[in-house]
Every structure is written in structure tokens, then in C-alpha cells.
Design a protein that fits this description.
This protein has 315 residues and is mainly α. The protein is 77% helix and 0% strand. α5 crosses α8, α8 crosses α10 and α9 runs antiparallel to α10. It starts with a helix and ends in a 7-residue tail after the last helix.
């Protein structure tokens, strides 16, 4: 294991997180609107708005505000919400768990769909499974997730009554109820993710199945199952892991619509509310948390390459 490479990647991760938080902080500052006016309401006097801006520190220069926020964030203090007057840190911890649960469940649904369909489609190109899989994956990519979620609610909740339409129950309180609330949002996000994964699994497998060592394995008399899973799929995992890493980061940071449709209390929904309310500390803390998780996932994917193929050397 090249520890120098790990240190280099960690330093790069710090730079990425700083860059993301700085850009978001700057964008929030230049977007029209005044959080003090939002808090006090449209009928507040100008003197009251100016006084609140001074108490919140919104009248200070941009760089001074950012450096002050960053110094506190490093110590785990993300400030106080401008709307609810509650500390931001506990809110982030409360929403991080549901976001990770939904993202991992959606990823598992996508993998359960993508690997069987993608592998079979590559082994039997042009077959019925290949054609149907290609059509369904294209539909899954094209259909908006909010529309698919609404259809699932209409079918499984309102028509059949099998699953609750929205809401969330912590897994520590009631596992069955938690699972029942998780199924529909995980299917909605997972089928979209699985459609993307299917295309990449099929493409990666087609590339590997045409290699000389696969033909040699078949010439030696190995069974087709052994050739596909022990030789082809194992070597195709390098490319597949890349898309899986991208899908994890996309699910963590990009399932706002799914969370809104199903009333899921995740980070995406929290960030959306912070944007609408012009809640600077809450939005900045949410972005910092998402950037940290995404960066750690990318680092984990990079290190996973080494275990999948020890021949890889990091310079």
C-alpha cells in the first residue's frame, strides 16, 4: 500500500471540500434576497432588518464571514440556524443517517438489477434479454424520478395499500415500519441508478469477454459459468467499481426530488429548505457534510482499485 498516495489524496480531498464550501458560500451571498428580511417578514421596518443583520454578522465582509465560519466548522460548530435558532450540527447528524440509509438501499436495488441483466446481456448479445434490458434501461434513464415515484405511490399505496406513501420511521424504533417506508423511495432511486449501471456492466463485460485470456480459458475446457464469473467479471470490476462509486455520490447528493416526494428527512431535503429560507449556516453545513461524504467515497473507490488489481501502482 502506497501511504504517500493516500496522504496525497487526503490533502486533495481537503482542498476539494474547501473549494466547494467557498463557492457555495459565495453563491449564497450574491443570490438576491435577505435572510434577515425572511426571518422578520415582509412588513418589518428597515431599522429592524439592519439591526438583525448586525446581530447575525451578515453585515461583515464576505471573506471575514467565511473565515469565521470555517474556523468554527473545523471545531465541529456549524453555527445556528437563522430560521429555527437551533444548532446546525445536531440537525446534520439527524439527517445524515436517513440519507445514507436511502442511498445504500437504492444502490443495492440498482446492483440487484444491473449485474444479472448486464452480465447476461453481455454473454448473450442480441438475445431477448439483451434487447428487453436495453429498452428498459433506456426507459429508466429517461423517466423523471419524481414521476416514477408518484406512479409507485398511486399503485402500491393508494391502489393496493401495500406500503405507506411517505414518511420515515427510525430503524431503532421499528424495523418493519422503517423497511416499509424505505421500499418505495429506494425502488424509485434504485431503478434509475440500476438503469445506468446496467449499461456500464454490459459494456465492461463485452470488452473483457473479447480478451485473449477469456478465449484461452474456454479453450482449456472451463465451464461457461467459471469463465464468466471467475475470469471475465472479476477483471471487469475495475470499470464497474468506478461507476458504482459515481452512483453512490450521485445518490447521496442528488436524490432531493425523491426525498421531497416521499417526505424522507434526508440531507437533500434539508438543503432545499435551507435554500428556500435563505438559511446560510444550515445550507453551508449541509453542503460541507455532503462534500465530505462524497470525497470519502471517492477516496475509498480509489483505494479499492488496489485490492481488485494488485498490479496497479500509484505514483
Amino acid at each position: 500500500m502506497n501511504y504517500g498516495y493516500i496522504i496525497q489524496r487526503l490533502l486533495l480531498a481537503v482542498i476539494v471540500i474547501l473549494g466547494v464550501t467557498f463557492v457555495v458560500f459565495m453563491i449564497v451571498q450574491i443570490v438576491p434576497g435577505d435572510p434577515a428580511r425572511v426571518i422578520l417578514g415582509p412588513y418589518a421596518t428597515d431599522d429592524a432588518v439592519i439591526g438583525l443583520r448586525q446581530r447575525l454578522g451578515l453585515n461583515r465582509p464576505f471573506l471575514e464571514q467565511y473565515i469565521s465560519w470555517l474556523g468554527n466548522a473545523v471545531q465541529g460548530n456549524f453555527g445556528t440556524s437563522l430560521i429555527t435558532s437551533q444548532p446546525v450540527g445536531p440537525q446534520l447528524l439527524q439527517r445524515l443517517g436517513p440519507s445514507l440509509e436511502l442511498a445504500l438501499a437504492s444502490l443495492l436495488v440498482g446492483i440487484a438489477v444491473a449485474f444479472p441483466v448486464g452480465v447476461i446481456s453481455a454473454v448473450k448479445p442480441g438475445s431477448l434479454i439483451d434487447v428487453v434490458g436495453s429498452i428498459l434501461s433506456q426507459i429508466g434513464i429517461s423517466v423523471p424520478s419524481f414521476w416514477m415515484g408518484i406512479l409507485f405511490v398511486l399503485l402500491f399505496s393508494l391502489s393496493l395499500g401495500w406500503l405507506p406513501p411517505s414518511g420515515y420511521t427510525p430503524i431503532s424504533e421499528d424495523f418493519k415500519d422503517w423497511l416499509a417506508h424505505l421500499v418505495l423511495p429506494a425502488l424509485t432511486a434504485g431503478l434509475v441508478s440500476g438503469s445506468i449501471q446496467t449499461r456500464f456492466v454490459r459494456s465492461a463485460m463485452l470488452d473483457v469477454l473479447g480478451m485473449d485470456y477469456v478465449r484461452t480459458a474456454r479453450a482449456k475446457g472451463l465451464g461457461e459459468r467459471s469463465v464468466v464469473y471467475n475470469h471475465a467479471l472479476r477483471n471487469a470490476m475495475i470499470n464497474i467499481v468506478t461507476i458504482l462509486g459515481l452512483q453512490i455520490t450521485a445518490l447521496i447528493s442528488g436524490i432531493v426530488i425523491v426525498e421531497v416526494v416521499f417526505g424522507w428527512p434526508g440531507l437533500g431535503r434539508l438543503a432545499l429548505n435551507a435554500v428556500l429560507d435563505r438559511d446560510y449556516p444550515l445550507l453551508q453545513g449541509t453542503v460541507f457534510t455532503i462534500a465530505l461524504v462524497v470525497t470519502l467515497v471517492n477516496l475509498g473507490v480509489d483505494l479499492l482499485y488496489f485490492f481488485l488489481d494488485p498490479r496497479i501502482e500509484y505514483a
